[in-house]
């Protein structure tokens, strides 16, 4: 009896999962289909999910009317340097909070935790004025530097360092190595999993960040992908050319999805891990 | 740290210096500045003028503020239960013995890694009243869809649907990790004791999943107060202010109307609300432990 009941149950569950999966995939299919349509076909009814006369015209238009490759490079540069900066700054500060004994440590750490709660909207006005006064509006520095000092990253690395045993570090110190040398040669090589997770979270956050680049950049050549995509809506005066907008969206999204497929283990574990710890 | 004297100070400065200075300049400094600004009127052209609690008073009698707060509550009431229920459902589904679990997990998670702007653009086009896929799909079923983003009654539901679609995978992954953390032995022991499926769901799964659920609840509540990207791209707060949100208004007051003080005061009210939610969940977690 039990055996006959089982496949039936699994079958129903699989069908539900498939229906849900279809709902997740359809918008992407719709975006790709639209991007392959000539402008005239956009306004034909009913809309086709498979374009009858597919063309790459929208792609050539987005690449010629907008510095799209440059924008792509900007996003890559900004996300990579922000992530690298965060890894260096946060792992060192996290190590200090986990291992050093100094006066005021716990109070200072409490301040770090408190800043985690502050919504970005609170600091955005003064931060904008500060960065503009520093001459960093419309510059890579303005995009990168403010994002390098993450209280979350420091907290995250501290938790990791607290979870690994001290014995190796103590042995290195007895052998006469200084704190920095110990950190570099003994501690850092053990941080693999934590660094992978923080890299993923930091890179994703920077790559998809919208509000800050939107405010600090108005030069097309310095825009990051989200800002450029949003600007595509107004590329042609009068009416949004949806095939061109979708071509840009597809171009911007494919690399994200490819990287995700390759690194999905770390991405998903990173997100799940942030939940377990939080 | 075994160094002594000046060397000890040097090591401390090396490890902590960059982080502390960066946080001071780019987070704590602006935060205090914003608190200070909230007691002034400042249009960026003339020097800030101290007005005491004037901005906060004005905010409390500002119809737009209450309207925006109502919008936020509308979003929250739709978004939070939907995203958590659907996320939980999918997590349970992917924790069962169905085939292609890996593939499904990827499918559900792709929107999470996609940028909000890309998602918002695609959904804006999906929701197009005449040429969009959604209303044409409804048409096949013999239904006439609303004008969605152009209809004050339907714009917020459209924003909610889009947000649920994007965030479900995130909730699913956290709850799935929570489900997988429950030892199989508990279920075996329960079934030996004669518990049926609903009973063990109620007595084992739910209590052990509660910490993950509380986390999802707090994350999605805090997120509800800070909606910006999707609204900026899809509606710019319209139509007729139906999708104005707190962060969207703060940005508009600061950067479109140059009312720095008013925007700062608004942002601190937002902070207090988020702090209250966070504190509530912190106490809840403590009470459980």
Keywords:
heterodimer, A: 278 residues, mainly alpha, MetI-like fold, 0% strand, globular, B: 289 residues, 2 domains, 12 helices, 73% helix
Report the structural category of chain B: mainly alpha
CATH architecture of the largest domain in chain B: Orthogonal Bundle
Number of domains of chain B: 2
- Give helix and strand order of chain B, one letter per element, not per position: HEEHHHHHHHHHHH
- Enumerate how many helices of chain B there are, as a single number: 12
Outline of this structure?
The complex is a heterodimer of chains A (278) and B (289). By secondary structure, chain A is mainly α.
Could you characterize what this model shows?
The complex is a heterodimer of chains A (278) and B (289). Chain A has helices at residues 2-35, 57-65, 68-99, 105-115, 120-133, 140-144, 151-163, 167-174, 179-187, 192-208, 211-216, 225-232, 242-277. The relative contact order of chain A is 0.13. Chain A is mainly α. Chain A folds into 2 domains: 2-43; 66-232, MetI-like fold (Orthogonal Bundle). In chain A, 73% of the residues lie in helices and 0% in strands. With 289 residues, chain B is mostly helical. Chain B folds into 2 domains: 5-50; 54-288, MetI-like (MetI-like fold, Orthogonal Bundle), CATH 1.10.3720. Chain B has 12 helices and 2 strands; from the N terminus they run αββααααααααααα. Chain B has helices spanning 5-37, 54-60, 63-94, 101-113, 116-126, 133-140, 155-180, 184-192, 197-224, 229-234, 246-255, 260-288, and strands at 40-41, 49-50. The longest helix of chain B is centred in the first third of the chain and has 33 residues, at 5-37. The mean pLDDT of chain B is 91. At the A-B interface, helix 1, helix 3, helix 4, helix 5 and helix 9 of A face helix 1, helix 3, helix 4, helix 5 and helix 6 of B.
